[in-house]
Amino acid sequence: MHKKVLIVDDSPAEVKLMQGLLEKEGYWPIGLHDPRRVEETITNERPSVILLDVVMPDRNGFQVCRDLKGNAEFNMIPVILVTSKDSARRGRIRDEALHAGRPASRGAAVRMKVPKQGNRR
After folding, report:
1. Are 4 and 45 in contact, with CB atoms under 8 Å apart?
2. Which residues does 13 contact at the CB level (< 8 Å), separation at least 6?
3. Which of 24, 48, 61, 93 is the most exposed place for a label (fewest CB within 10 A)?
4. Residue 118 pLDDT > 80, yes or no?
5. 4-104: CATH, from 3.90.550.10, 3.40.50.2300, 3.90.780.10, 1.10.10.10
6. Which of 24-28, 62-66, 115-119 has the lowest mean pLDDT?
7. What's the pLDDT score for residue 97?
8. Averaged pLDDT score across all residues of the chain
């Protein structure tokens, strides 16, 4: 059985990019463009992990993460906060992300570079 990965990002292009990368690695990605529907989607799809964009309208990634970690039904699902923002904002984003999660999940920030089309292995 493939592991389900919920991708929450208001940008359809970003969701499509992440879906393509994850599918090639054998995951079952589920895209969601509306952060207000995260809990509903989790209940219906039961993902193993959530990739959550930081900057979204109506409800940003930090708000979603705090809500999930405060809910006993969802707080054990790992959440990875992702952003395409420049490095000047990464320190502030990392600090906010650490405060959004529970203390046991605090650790080093991970930076993942997505290979350009021509540079894939």
Report:
1. yes
2. none
3. 24
4. no
5. 3.40.50.2300
6. 115-119
7. 54
8. 79
Helix (H) or strand (E) holding 79: strand 79-82
Other Cβ atoms less than 10 A from the Cβ of 38: the count is 23
* Identity at 42, one-letter amino acid code: I
pTM of the shown model: 0.73
- The residue ranges of every structural domain in the chain are 4-104
pLDDT at 36: 95
Tokens 């990392």 -> residue: 94
CB 97 within 8 A of CB 109: yes
71 against 88, higher pLDDT: 71
